[in-house]
Each structure stands twice: as C-alpha cells, then as structure tokens.
Amino acid sequence: MSPSNLEKLPVSVLVDQFAALCEAQDSAELRGEYRQLKSQFREMVAIEDELRARPGDQRRALMLLLDHRNMQVRLNAALAILAVCPTEARVALRRIEDSRHFPQAAEAGMTLKALDAGTYAPR
Predict the structure, then answer these.
(1) Which CATH number is 3-117's, of 3.30.565.10, 3.30.70.1050, 1.25.40.70, 3.40.50.10950?
(2) Where in the chain are the domains?
(3) pLDDT value at position 34?
C-alpha cells in the first residue's frame, strides 16, 4: 500500500492493518519465507511512519496491540511505541522476554539490553 493511500485511512484501520501484517510476518518467518518478510516489514514501517506523522504522533494507538493474542504483534507494537510510550513499551518487552516465547523473547531481551546500555534510542 502506498503512503498516499495510508493518509486516507483512519487510525483504527491502520492499527488493524499493522496487526495483520505482524501476524503474516510471524507466519512467513515460521515458513522461512524471507522475501515475504521483507515486504511485510516495509509495509509495517510505512504504517508506523504514517501514524508518527499524524498530529500528536498517533503511534500511541498501537498500545491496543500490547495484549494481542499473537506474540509477534505484541513485540512489533512495543517496538513501535518505544519513543512515545517508553514505560508501557518496556513493560511489554519485559513480559515478552519473560514468556520465553522464542524468537520474540530473544528480540525483546536484546532490545531491553540495548536500551539500558544506551546503544539504541527509539525515534
């Protein structure tokens, strides 16, 4: 979906599309379909960028996904909101790490370590 099309969509639809892409990303990773992963990642970034560009930085809307049934959705939502809701994002990342649900738990743990070390600063 092109960025110009994203501009026309309400925030709730963007959140739903973000979740759907994360679920598809999870499935593609499990099947080893890396080309599809790359495409889904680009679309997720476009949605995140669109939400960031909206008045008040609407990435906060992704907080609804922190309790999603799919661990990849939770992880990507937490990563997306780190700059705007750092406390909530860190709590979500810690829960994912503590779940020992891999590979998401590993990424959550590495992100927390990088944040604590100051080698990663969300934008």
Answers:
(1) 1.25.40.70
(2) 3-117
(3) 84
